[in-house]
């Protein structure tokens, strides 16, 4: 994989309220856990879910959201550290799912990583868990 493919661009981040509601609100989403992370994912049809004109929609085939609840870490410094670790691990291993989603025409994958633990964990362990989750998601789609 080339170096410029390992970036995590703005288009790859899930920030659309409509898409987040699609992921969590309606049925059809799947979830799997590799403690301390839970991944909720859904493969959607790009044309059906987005009602914006084609020229304004420049979204990636895979979009990611990272959530660390305030219930687990009261201080924003710790929450931001965990989010940074998860984003970095995803950035390194995203090829597992991007190659699989690119095989499907007009499909988009939405993934939400949710933190489940009350403790900080080292980056190597988080990277292994994210890699494990992405491989399992890639096999199921």
UniProtKB/TrEMBL annotation:
Q: Sorted alphabetically, which Pfam families does this protein's record hold?
A: Ribonuclease_P (PF00825)
- Name the enzyme group at the top EC level: hydrolase
The UniProt catalytic activity note for this protein reads: Endonucleolytic cleavage of RNA, removing 5'-extranucleotides from tRNA precursor
Q: Does the keyword Hydrolase apply?
A: yes
Q: What are the protein's GO molecular function terms?
A: ribonuclease P activity; tRNA binding
Q: Could you say which EC number(s) this protein's record lists?
A: 3.1.26.5
Assembly with partners or alone: Consists of a catalytic RNA component (M1 or rnpB) and a protein subunit.
Function per UniProt:
RNaseP catalyzes the removal of the 5'-leader sequence from pre-tRNA to produce the mature 5'-terminus. It can also cleave other RNA substrates such as 4.5S RNA. The protein component plays an auxiliary but essential role in vivo by binding to the 5'-leader sequence and broadening the substrate specificity of the ribozyme.
Similarity comment: Belongs to the RnpA family.
What is the name of this protein? Answer: Ribonuclease P protein component
Native species: Prevotella melaninogenica
């Amino acid at each position: 994989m080339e170096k410029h493919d390992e970036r995590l661009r703005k288009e790859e981040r899930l920030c659309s309220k409509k898409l987040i509601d699609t992921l969590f609100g309606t049925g059809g989403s799947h979830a799997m856990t590799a403690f301390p992370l839970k991944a909720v994912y859904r493969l959607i049809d790009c044309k059906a879910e987005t009602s914006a004109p084609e020229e304004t929609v420049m979204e990636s085939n895979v979009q990611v959201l990272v959530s660390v609840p305030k219930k687990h870490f009261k201080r924003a410094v710790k929450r931001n550290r965990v989010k940074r670790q998860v984003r970095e691990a995803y950035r390194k291993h995203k090829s597992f799912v991007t190659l699989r989603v690119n095989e499907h025409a007009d499909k988009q994958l939405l993934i939400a990583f949710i933190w489940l633990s009350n403790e900080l964990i080292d980056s190597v362990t988080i990277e292994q868990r994210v890699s494990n989750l992405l491989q399992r998601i890639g096999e199921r789609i």
